[in-house]
Amino acid sequence: MDRTAAFEGQRPRLKRLAYRMLGSVAEADDVVQDAWIRWTRAPDDVADPAAWLVRAATRLSIDRLRAAKAERAHYRGPWLPEPMVEPLTNDPVERAEDVSVAFLLALERLSPLERAVFLLHDVFDEDYGAVAKTLGRSEAAVRQLASRAREHVRDARPRFSVSQDRALALAAAFMEASSRADLTGLSELLAEDAVLVSDGGGKRKAALRVLVGREDVLSLFRGLRWRGGALNPRSLELAWINGAPGVVMQLEDGPATVAVEPDAEGRVAAVYMVRNPDKLAHLADALTASPAT
């Protein structure tokens, strides 16, 4: 058996699974590395290398997720997953509904086991028997976990009904209006029930609660304008962020990402802004010096 070839063939799948489990690009990379180390010590007669590796990555992710639950309970302000950024020049690798911020936030409500069962069965198409073997549970228990998980995430996957071009145009218009604190323009772009979530992790300026409703979101930009400030990015680049249109930008105090989820009418339904520098370190090499527009 070519151990390296077997692992490399599964690497993308392992990273996709770990990212959805943990909501962290950096930790997903760590899980994949740990799975490789375990794989180098596995017996030579493993009958199904792919299943062995998925089992290892799942169990490693569950261990990390259990440890992270306590940390996230004391997180300062709203918590968002590390942004998964794909350049516009690429066709999105991931299905938008399976990496959307709303979907990942819904997964946060699940126990580690529920999350693993749901992802393995409903997202990665593993049968219940295989999932039961991976988790060391009975098939009946796995089915019950899957049913409970589905109740929590049923309505969380966004259904992007606008074209990619229109969605990108919406993101660009939102950034243009927000960079100038143009309240009239923002009001026209925002859905009545729009939400804005900003994650600074206590290390960068960000709202300490979720803003809900058009007027609540506008109050943030009204405050920025009153203080004579706006986003005023030094550089700005359109990108796919967790399957949604958005931007990667450089602000005076560091990078940020903004993902914009449109509703069926083509208005902004949700805005997710990550400012916590710990969650943006993996973007350092991807940031460009494109001039702000």
UniProtKB/TrEMBL annotation:
Gene3D superfamilies attached here? 1.10.1740.10, 3.10.450.50, Winged helix-like DNA-binding domain superfamily/Winged helix DNA-binding domain
Q: Where is the RNA polymerase sigma-70 region domain?
A: 11-69
Q: Name one GO biological process term.
A: DNA-templated transcription initiation
Q: Where is the RNA polymerase sigma factor 70 region 4 type domain?
A: 102-152
- Could you name the domain of life of the organism this protein comes from? Bacteria
GO molecular function terms noted in the UniProt entry: DNA binding; sigma factor activity
Q: Which PANTHER family match?
A: ECF RNA POLYMERASE SIGMA FACTOR SIGJ (PTHR30173:SF36), SIGMA 19 FACTOR (PTHR30173)
- What is its quaternary makeup? Interacts transiently with the RNA polymerase catalytic core formed by RpoA, RpoB, RpoC and RpoZ (2 alpha, 1 beta, 1 beta' and 1 omega subunit) to form the RNA polymerase holoenzyme that can initiate transcription.
Q: What is this protein called?
A: RNA polymerase sigma factor SigJ
Q: Which species is listed as the source?
A: Phenylobacterium soli
